[in-house]
Design brief:
Two copies of one chain form a homodimer. With 541 residues, chain A is mostly helical. Chain A is built from 18 helices and eight strands. Among the domains of chain A are: 117 residues, Phox-like domain (PX Domain, 2-Layer Sandwich), CATH 3.30.1520.10; 208 residues, Up-down Bundle (Substrate Binding Domain Of Dnak, Chain:A, Domain 2). The radius of gyration of chain A is 28 Å and the shape is elongated. At the A-B interface, α14, α15, α16 and α18 of A face α14, α15, α16 and α18 of B. Chains A, B: One of its GO terms (molecular function) is phosphatidylinositol binding.
Chain lengths: 541, 541
């Protein structure tokens, strides 16, 4: 994928073409000339340029996926460990995974799904027959066997060989247009109607005469209002497709964690559903993702057959990895200045790092607060309540007349503090929970950005090298212009994504803070009410 | 004092008499016949009765004072240690101090102030000349030396020798009348006007050209509204007098702790003043104490000369220890049934123990709550506040337009949580403090009851023995009747004191709970208000 990325920057021009099966679509113009004069397109090994730069430093969607799977921020934060965040920090460092990918795929072509667990793909691997929601062993390799040969004579080193087939992007509507709005810079073209969906009604299903069971969620898009059913593994399949296709341009936050033990427990199902809802809503809100064919398939397939056919088609989609930039058009926007692009990148990098720190800080504090609110604090209120009630029953034993007013009031006060104890313990679920969930979601999202930004930084570096290449006669000045133009498109895309992120962030934090504070107000008001009532039962003697 | 107590039960009839100096007052009738036919009045050693029973088991006001000084419940509860309550528990057990007192005073007469640190008493011991507010070494022994011989030929083993002098109780107004009120049983005769006083305006004074300094408090009784000045050591002098005089009948709670280090610090002075106020208010509320000459002297002496003369007189008061019962009259009340008396005693004993446990429990819990409210909890709110503000400043660095509304609101929310942190930390001073102070006061008060109840239990035991004594011809049936009558008076007195305690307790706990809950309501309302305001600054996008 690395070298291919370089090729993308330099060479592709997209032309409409027809393949041997008569399918029409856009194909890279240069690719068709693959065996002509281009000195470094026949294979990575023969390339006169030092491609190892990209090989070792450029993150790939594959490595993104791997890193994200290890620490995707979706660990339930109730067991969040502050010290365990080291895995995440690695995202900011040079990524050894990239190196590995480069080694196993020395070929210059993008490897498509290489490095991903290739579950649910190969024919004969009937995914509904295994109960595990994730199984690398069973499913890996299926793709290579089943797809080999279909692409024709292209060497198997890179799945990109299959991009010789006509791309599914056979009309310009699939180009995601970047508009320019003065205030915030480049933004995606947002649809008039904001797609959303409801994930609800988890149901236990079973098959093989009850031998295998699973949970199925009902997903209802607001567009059709027609529910479709999906298991967690279908969401995961969608995630893989989106990551593969859009991962270079758009950070795709991981799904909530897979879990084997206890996954049929109500509490877990509820939590997973809530997080799947959060993930889906975020995906729905993204104009590029929500309008993509694979996402639309997921939300509104007509029947099983439609779903299965759509899946196959999506799995064969070639416009993946950096190829996605070919479908993006900065409509009417001038080429960007390299320095400016770099500055934007750096600024965004700094911002996401800082926000990542801030979010993690808030999560750590929130987690401690959660523990206190559900542990020692209510226990203390309960003990205060018990102490009042105990004193009241001691007073009752005095044998002194006219004590009942005090002891009744004291008992009521004691019970009030026991009620407060319960309120305190239950409150975090009503407010802190959402604050934590939102920040947890952002932690996951922010964890994807280093990779996304890395793709752009690498592109900029490559364009910077272009001058030398021109001087050495390795590329023409016109080639250099092409590279700049493409880097410019990537940069517009990143900026549009940054702006999308920012506007969503503002919306999300406004909403979650409002919700948090509203619940906090209610909480303290209710405590005050309860205490006011307890107070009224005491009489001045 | 032990054997004297027995004598009191059996023999005293009070007659008006005139002493060698022409002073007139009540003296025990039997005492005058001391060298006549009574077989066990000439000295403990020769007594045919086993007086060691009382010697070893009966608490004396002296031992009360000693025990109370060790663990009087006035240790500032901010350093209250749950495990350190062992000292207090001793109060409920047989008291080794009593044994010791019995040994050193084998003589049958009460030793008056024996066992007390006899500070401020002897002539030539000009108490204003030493700065220490408590000094056993300097002041002890002064009394024995200066008073010896004054009492005539009476052997020095017991200071009661000096009771040969005419008692100061030379009119029946000084008899504290117990009234009977159907509902609650015997009660003290309460004055129409409830005395109170204000302890305020602590001022640093000095003497010996600034060599010695001290704090003087202004004490203003509500009766005269004329302030008098008192140093802590004057309060302590008053405490000693009250303990000596009333300790057998009325539990005299200890003063707030003496303290040498830091006693000029504002915080300490304020706390001490508050506790002196609490102590004085409690003393004012007691009809027997507040009407006593020594208490009136303390509150309303005219000038230095008046004060010094009054002090001398009070120090020479002979109606101390169990003698105080001679000044108590259960007006128109029938003699009590012994069984009933014993049951009342036991019930009250159980009650005070149970309340003591309850109060200590509340203090332990309150102390923990105090620590949490002033330690980790506000720190957590502060961290939440800082995290919000930090996130806000990260957001500000985004370079994205139209962020100001969110960042301003987020900063405000952060500051609100910092304010809440401060409120949380300061709140205990506004509510928990008074709840703790009241319970601390009651802890001290309850610690005095085992001794007071012990005096009565011992008296009952002795009266029970009377049958045997009559059978053995050691006392007459009429003597037995006298003993019963006196034990009855003591019991009425205890019951009046119990009822005084109960009614005060009901008043105090009503008041403190009202205050606590009122402040708690205000606290939670204020938090809700602050959060409501913070909430209003977020805008729905």
């Amino acid at each position: 994928i690395i070298s291919f990325f370089f090729l993308y920057l330099l060479h592709y021009r997209w032309i409409e073409a027809k393949n041997s099966r008569g399918e029409v679509g856009l194909v890279p113009e240069d690719y068709i000339e693959i065996n002509q004069a281009q000195p470094f397109t026949s294979g990575g090994n023969a390339a006169p340029l030092d491609l190892s730069f990209f090989d070792s430093h450029m993150p790939t969607p594959a490595s993104t996926a791997q890193v994200s799977h290890r620490d995707n921020g979706n660990n339930p934060w109730t067991v969040f460990d502050n010290n365990a965040s080291g895995g995440f920090s690695n995202n900011w460092a040079a990524q050894p995974e990239g190196t590995e990918t480069g080694k196993t795929s020395s070929n210059a072509w993008p490897s498509g799904g290489h490095g991903h667990p290739q579950a649910y793909q190969g024919p004969g691997a009937e995914d509904d027959e295994w109960d595990e929601e994730w199984d690398d062993v069973k499913s890996s390799g299926g793709y290579a066997e089943s797809e080999a040969g279909e692409g024709g004579a292209i060497n198997r080193g890179g799945a990109h060989g299959s991009s010789m087939k006509i791309s599914r992007n056979n009309n310009t509507h699939n180009k995601d247009v970047i508009q320019f709005i003065g205030e915030v810079g480049p933004v995606w073209a947002y649809p008039d109607y904001q797609l959303d969906c409801v994930v609800a009604d988890p149901k236990k299903g079973s098959k093989l005469y009850g031998l295998k069971s699973y949970i199925e969620y009902q997903v209802t898009p607001t567009t059709t209002n027609k529910p479709v059913n999906h298991r967690y593994k279908h969401f995961d399949w969608l995630y893989e497709r989106l990551l593969e296709k859009f991962g270079s341009a758009i950070p795709i936050p991981c799904l909530p964690d897979k879990q084997v033990a206890g996954r049929f427990e109500d509490e877990f199902i509820k939590m997973r559903m809530e997080r799947l809802q959060g993930w889906m809503t975020r995906m729905c809100r993204h104009p590029v993702i929500s309008s993509s064919e694979v996402f639309q398939l997921f939300l509104s397939y007509k029947d099983e057959k439609d779903w299965k056919m759509g899946k196959r088609k999506a799995e064969k989609d070639e416009t993946v990895g950096v190829m996605v930039f070919s479908t993006i058009e900065p409509e009417g926007l001038p080429d960007l200045d390299l320095i400016e692009v770099e500055q934007k990148c750096d600024q965004f990098n700094r911002f996401t790092r800082a926000m990542d720190d801030g979010v993690k800080d808030l999560l750590t504090i929130g987690n401690e607060h959660w523990k206190r609110c559900t542990g020692p604090l209510p226990k203390e209120y309960q003990r205060i309540g018990k102490a009042f009630q105990n004193l009241s029953s001691v007073f009752t034993s005095s044998g002194y007349e006219g004590e009942a007013a005090l002891t009744d009031a004291l008992t009521a006060a004691g019970k009030t503090y026991e009620e407060i104890a319960q309120m305190v313990a239950e409150q975090p679920k009503k407010d802190l929970h959402f604050l934590m969930e939102t920040n947890n979601e952002y932690k996951g999202l922010l964890g994807c950005f280093p990779d996304t930004v890395g793709v752009h930084k690498a592109a900029i570096e490559k364009v910077k090298e272009a001058d030398k290449l021109v001087a050495a006669g390795k590329i023409t000045p016109s080639d250099k212009t092409t590279m700049s133009k493409r880097a410019s498109t990537m940069s517009y895309s990143l900026q549009a994504e940054m702006n999308h992120f920012h506007s969503n962030r503002i919306y999300d934090y406004n909403r979650v803070m409002q919700q948090y504070l509203e619940q906090q107000v209610k909480f303290y008001e209710m405590i005050a009410d309860k205490l006011r009532h307890a107070h009224s039962q005491f009489t001045t003697m």
